[in-house]
Write a structure and sequence with these properties.
Number of strands of chain A: 0
Largest sheet of chain A: none
Number of helices of chain A: 8
Structural class of chain B: mainly alpha
Oligomer: heterodimer
Helix content of chain B: over 70%
Shape of chain B: elongated
Radius of gyration of chain A: 21 Å
Largest sheet of chain B: none
Number of domains of chain B: 1
Helix content of chain A: over 70%
Strand content of chain A: under 5%
């Protein structure tokens, strides 16, 4: 098992192998994400019971919560890819990091927007300077920073290393930011409207959520691989195997 | 390249006026401090501009919000801190670029000593020359914003501690964008999210002092942030400088 993983890891370091191996993974990610998302959406939107306090508006949770999950874990993945790049000089790690950044930013944006839409009926306001909302907004800016840095720097290897370093610095800072924002929030006057305390969810409510979270992760895998494979082709456009591949088509 | 590597300590040390007799790390650190001091003292514009920027931003608020004490006094801590934070950020922009342009940054990287302490020397001197005057100017602007007297001491102390953290963290962003001709907005985008904890604790300390509480808890947290930055950011700055120079 260990040896198999080691071989796989080394093979993923080669652009050609990366392209071939991920090509086999692609349909699995696609199928499982479509299946899980479809199942979760149908169960969540049609079959889950209405919340006794929030009515039907709670159903936006099935988009909001998975997006917020991904928003945070994508940054961790990006930093992990950064460590792989800086320590083992594995170029494919940067391809993955580059593919991850916009997806993470979009997920953060989705969780902010759905949070605002959810906030209107439940809190009576689109935006509140709540600790969680504020740290999510800062996370969004962190993503934009990484993307802007990649855009600005050239050549590619320099941009790759710089983005990796910035992502790692960001991961060290995220707990500090989170903690300080919580502190800041408790010092300011607490909001007059609070999120109603959630009743323990019945299975018919949380199972769709579980499906949606897993479906979002599969969707993440799918879209990262799609973006990464396109980037590999772009970066390796001059190599023999890409030319041969394109000749066939 | 080989030639430089062979005479590695000499290449960098020739840049410092005094020859380093002991090749110990402390000796090199002291030599780097002296070199930075001489270089940065001579760039008078870079020292004065952040101060003028700080004062100007503060002046914008009475004009834009309201000149009355009832409105200005409550927002004074935030205005002073945000203006000071932006001034520190602006002053950091040109921290490494002149060294990159005249080639001394490369010498620093190949001199054979650990880069982290050498870049720390640069940031420390910058903090002493750019941020400490800012701290001294702050009470004057505080008076103009009707800041209560009991908060003036805390204002200076919190800015002194906070600006050290700001300089160290901002230097990472400055190092990452060194290779770019102009980096003002990009560096702001990179660094500002990391500045938010410092802002929160800095203004928190002043609010506590204004309300008659002790500001010690906030100041202790600011000091903690500064110490963590002092311990970790030199390594990140060094790594960022290596990346920036490799792109040249």
């Amino acid at each position: 098992m260990w040896n198999w993983l080691k071989t796989l890891y080394h093979r993923l370091g080669s652009p050609k192998w990366f392209y071939q191996i991920t090509g086999k993974w692609l349909p699995w990610f696609a199928m499982s994400s479509l299946l899980l998302l479809g199942l979760g959406l149908v169960l969540g939107l049609a079959y889950a019971p209405m919340d006794y306090q929030q009515g039907n508006s709670f159903r936006i949770m099935y988009i909001h919560v998975p997006a917020a999950f991904l928003a945070q874990s994508v940054y961790m993945m990006m930093a992990a890819a950064g460590v792989v790049l800086l320590v083992w000089k594995m170029k494919m790690a940067d391809v993955v990091a580059q593919a991850l950044a916009p997806i993470g930013a979009i997920m953060t944006f989705i969780s902010l927007v759905t949070g605002a839409i959810w906030g209107m009926p439940t809190w009576g306001t689109w935006w509140m300077w709540d600790a969680r909302l504020t740290s999510m907004l800062i996370l969004f800016f962190l993503y934009l920073g990484v993307m802007a840095l990649r855009e600005a720097l050239s050549p590619q290897e320099v941009a790759a290393k710089a983005c990796a370093l910035l992502a790692i610095v960001g991961v060290i800072n995220i707990p500090i930011i989170k903690y300080s924002v919580d502190w800041w929030y408790t010092l300011h006057q607490p909001a007059s409207i609070k999120l109603t305390e959630k009743p323990a969810m019945p299975a018919s409510m949380y199972l769709p959520l579980l499906f949606m979270v897993l479906g979002f992760y599969a969707l993440l895998g799918w879209s990262v691989l799609l973006r990464a494979r396109a980037e590999v082709l772009r970066r390796e456009a001059k190599s023999g195997w890409v030319r041969e591949l394109l000749k066939d088509k | 390249m080989n030639q430089i590597n062979n005479e590695k300590p000499a290449a960098f040390c020739r840049l410092t006026r005094e020859a380093v007799n002991s090749s110990s790390l402390i000796g090199v650190f002291v030599a780097a401090l002296k070199r930075e001091w001489q270089l940065q003292v001579r760039r008078k514009g870079d020292l004065i501009n952040p101060l003028v920027f700080f004062a100007l931003v503060v002046v914008l608020f009475p004009l834009g919000v309201s000149p009355t004490a009832e409105i200005l006094a409550p927002v004074a801590p935030g205005v002073l801190w945000v203006a000071a934070l932006l001034a520190v950020l602006m002053s950091l922009d040109a921290l490494f670029r002149p060294d990159l342009q005249d080639g001394s940054l490369e010498q620093l990287l190949v001199c054979g000593y650990s880069v982290a302490p050498l870049s720390l020397a640069k940031v420390l001197v910058h903090w002493l020359l750019s941020c400490v005057p800012l701290v001294l100017l702050a009470p004057l602007l505080g008076i103009m914003l009707y800041l209560p007297w009991q908060a003036q001491g805390v204002l200076m102390l919190s800015l002194l501690l906070g600006s050290l953290a700001l300089s160290l963290v901002g230097a990472i962003g400055a190092a990452l964008t060194t290779g770019l001709g102009k980096s003002g907005v990009l560096m702001t985008l990179l660094v500002l999210p990391f500045y938010m904890p410092v802002l929160i604790f800095g203004t928190g300390a002043m609010q506590a002092a204004i309300n008659g509480h002790t500001a010690l808890a906030h100041l202790a947290l600011l000091a903690a942030l500064a110490l963590v930055a002092l311990a970790l950011s030199p390594w990140a700055i060094a790594a960022a400088l290596r990346i920036a120079v490799s792109g040249e």
